[in-house]
Amino acid sequence: MRSMGDEFIIEQMSIKALQKKTKEVTVNEKTGAFNRRKRFGKSIGKRSPGYFIQQAKYRFTVTGGIVKETNTWTCKASQYDHILDDTSKKQLSKRWHNLPNGIKLQRDLYSAFLLFCTEHDLQKPNKKICDSFFHEFLVLHNQCIEEIKNNCKVVLNSGITCNKGEIVVTSA
């Protein structure tokens, strides 16, 4: 990551909050049984994102890079749409963002682009910056998706799965 630039911008998030059980008890509409209240506890333990973030920040600063953290309550990069200049709540399971002009973007890649386009105060993406860099981002986005498809790479939780050389895009 360090070889790609001098700034490392990430969203602040509470790893502990992801481990906790949900407060609401819900009922499955089809079966009438109670849904499990589990969230990401075991997955967090296996992948340890807190340790990864801590190590990335440390190694980035040691090599002379700048680490910036955005506040997820004010920035909301994963919910922002630069064409509408507005945010809309999306489910975590929706891995693709559909722009009003029909362009379909992978949600995490689009969020990274929006973080790149934030003001210096990291409060909200700047629509003018987004508009000026969007075409370049779109070309790189499409190249990245094509590389994943052509090489049948497994990218967990991306919405792209590879089944025996065949690519299936899930949850549009």
Major sheet: 2 strands, parallel
Distance between the termini: 28 Å
The unreliable regions are none
Give average pLDDT, whole number. 77
Structural class: alpha+beta
Write a structural description.
The chain has a two-stranded parallel sheet with strand order 1-2. Strands 3-4 form a two-stranded antiparallel ribbon. Helix 4 (107-116) packs antiparallel against helix 5 (127-151). The longest helix is centred in the last third of the chain and has 25 residues, at 127-151. The mean pLDDT is 77. With 172 residues, the chain is α+β, with helices and mostly antiparallel strands. The chain has helices spanning 15-19, 41-47, 49-62, 107-116, 127-151; strands at 7-11, 66-70, 80-81, 86-87, 96-98, 104-106, 160-163, 166-169. Strand 3 (80-81) and strand 4 form a beta hairpin. It has two domains: 1-70, no CATH class; 83-172, no CATH class. It starts with 6 loop residues before the first strand and ends with a strand.
Q: Which descriptors apply to this entry?
A:
single chain; 172 residues; alpha+beta; two-stranded antiparallel sheet; 5 helices; 8 strands; 35% helix; globular; HNH endonuclease
Layout of SSEs?
Elements: E1 7-11, H1 15-19, H2 41-47, H3 49-62, E2 66-70, E3 80-81, E4 86-87, E5 96-98, E6 104-106, H4 107-116, H5 127-151, E7 160-163, E8 166-169
Parallel strand pairs: 1-2
Antiparallel strand pairs: 3-4, 5-6, 7-8
Protein name: HNH endonuclease
Organism: Ectobacillus funiculus
Offer a quick outline of the entry.
The chain is of the alpha+beta class.
